[in-house]
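Q: Please design a sequence for this.
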């Protein structure tokens, strides 16, 4: 029987249950597969119930050892069907939608969209004997998963920065540059803020499994390199986009209102950055305070997201006005050419 090891992102050494029941949640990326789930707060046993082929079905996930450092250890001890996609997937890996559901008992998905939660993959073994024979520790596995996740995030930053650096020459084209790269800048803001929150979870994991890591020095060096790159790029994005915004704002009053939004966005980014520097050494004592700060950050990010969405329509309006101006200029030039040609013909006569 397969066994699974799940890391639940948390900011403390011990898991805190936030809810015991989750009802009618869709765990499928294709179509709809609704499940109900309940968690026993003492044994950590999880019961799933769902419909398959018109019949009520159940699955029971029972811990095969106690939780440790926000890690959960499960095996399936009851299963009434084996033909659904969920059951088939569980034979070779832990279902990503189900992993998302399990986290929901303990963890609000604060710093990433729900569809990006699956970047961290749960650990899978065909049998419980395979698990106990494994030489790579759970600590090494999940730290490596986070480093891979941040490496992908770093490459995404590179892609969006390349878009922003595709500058055009003339003043009107500079406006088009600003408008066309606005979404890239917005996406970069979201990536940097999400990184700040995810980095908190990584540090919590890293600190809680210190003694279980095979080579903590190598882990820290790799993470320090990625973290340094991301933070340098964050500073470059802030200064580069602010500079171009200022240049355009000075010469073109049409987008002056839009430029003001950038200051709000950057202030949120600074707030996110300030939060990430806080030490987690005394996390158990400051847990309540940290939870409030995390939720406060999420609310701020949500607020700026709303502002950016409202501004996006203004960006589209400005772009439309530019198209209209360009069209009028072409019409005027065409009429001038016609007039000049007509005047030349009359003069020849």
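A: Design:
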């Amino acid at each position: 029987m397969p066994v699974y090891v799940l890391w639940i992102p948390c900011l403390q050494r011990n898991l805190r249950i936030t809810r015991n029941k989750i009802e009618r949640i869709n765990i499928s990326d294709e179509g709809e597969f609704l499940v109900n789930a309940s968690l026993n707060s003492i044994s950590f046993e999880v019961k799933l119930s769902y419909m398959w082929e018109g019949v009520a079905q159940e699955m029971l996930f029972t811990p095969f050892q106690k939780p440790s450092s926000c890690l959960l250890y499960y095996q399936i001890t009851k299963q009434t069907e084996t033909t659904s996609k969920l059951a088939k997937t569980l034979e070779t890996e832990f279902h990503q939608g189900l992993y998302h559901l399990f986290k929901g008992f303990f963890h609000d998905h604060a710093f990433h969209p729900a569809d990006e939660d699956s970047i961290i993959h749960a650990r899978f073994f065909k049998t419980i004997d395979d698990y106990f024979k494994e030489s790579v520790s759970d600590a090494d596995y999940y730290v490596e998963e986070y480093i891979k996740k941040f490496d992908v995030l770093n490459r995404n930053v590179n892609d969006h920065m390349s878009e922003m650096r595709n500058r055009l020459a003339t003043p009107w084209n500079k406006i088009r540059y600003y408008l066309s790269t606005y979404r890239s800048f917005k996406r970069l803001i979201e990536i940097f803020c999400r990184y700040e929150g995810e980095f908190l979870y990584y540090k919590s994991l890293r600190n809680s499994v210190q003694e279980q890591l095979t080579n903590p020095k190598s882990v820290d060096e790799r993470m320090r390199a990625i973290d340094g790159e991301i933070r340098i790029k964050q500073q470059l994005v802030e200064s580069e986009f602010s500079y171009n915004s200022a240049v355009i704002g000075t010469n073109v009053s049409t987008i002056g209102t839009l430029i003001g939004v950038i200051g709000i966005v950057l202030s949120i980014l600074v707030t996110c950055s300030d939060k990430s520097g806080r030490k987690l050494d005394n996390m158990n004592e400051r847990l309540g305070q940290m939870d409030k700060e995390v939720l406060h950050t999420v609310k701020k990010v949500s607020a700026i997201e709303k502002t950016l969405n409202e501004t996006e329509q203004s960006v589209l309006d400005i772009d439309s006005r530019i198209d209209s101006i360009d069209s009028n200029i072409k019409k005027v030039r065409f009429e001038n050419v016609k007039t000049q040609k007509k005047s030349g013909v009359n003069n020849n006569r």
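Q: Thanks. Anything notable?
A: Residues 252-256, 275-284 have pLDDT under 50 and may be disordered. The chain is about 60% helix and 15% strand.
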